[in-house]
Amino acid sequence: MARVTLFRREVLGFPITAAVTRAGDDLLVQVAGGCREHIGSVSTARFENGELKIDSLLLPHHRDDVVGDKFAKALAERSRATVTVVCGIHFDSPGRDGIREIVECTDSLLEDILSSDVISDK
């Protein structure tokens, strides 16, 4: 059975979590939270001929690829593995300041993962 490592932060009164699962040498990450978790994007970062490539699937009317692509790129660069991130974070009308707080929260969550042993734990 695959081991899932959970990371959690809170912003604007709601949790945002990242569940990181090893898939052999690769990583599968689910980032979800806010007032309504969902699937808004799927981002995969992989190396092709030594160059990092990112493929994204974005559902209509969603912007979750901003977070998903950032997580996939950073985690793939650190682990040198293929990383797929499923992302769905929703807040009702957070405003500019709220969006800034959400971005800061997800950046902190990513830093938590990057500084953990889950990346190097092959």
UniProtKB/TrEMBL annotation:
Recorded superkingdom: Bacteria
Pfam families in the record: PAC_bac (PF21758)
Domain named Prenylated flavin chaperone LpdD-like: residues: 13-115
Family annotation (InterPro entries): LpdD_chaperone-like
Protein name listed in UniProt: Prenylated flavin chaperone LpdD-like domain-containing protein
Organism the protein comes from: Candidatus Scatomorpha intestinavium
Organism placement in taxonomy: Bacteria, Bacillati, Bacillota, Clostridia, Eubacteriales
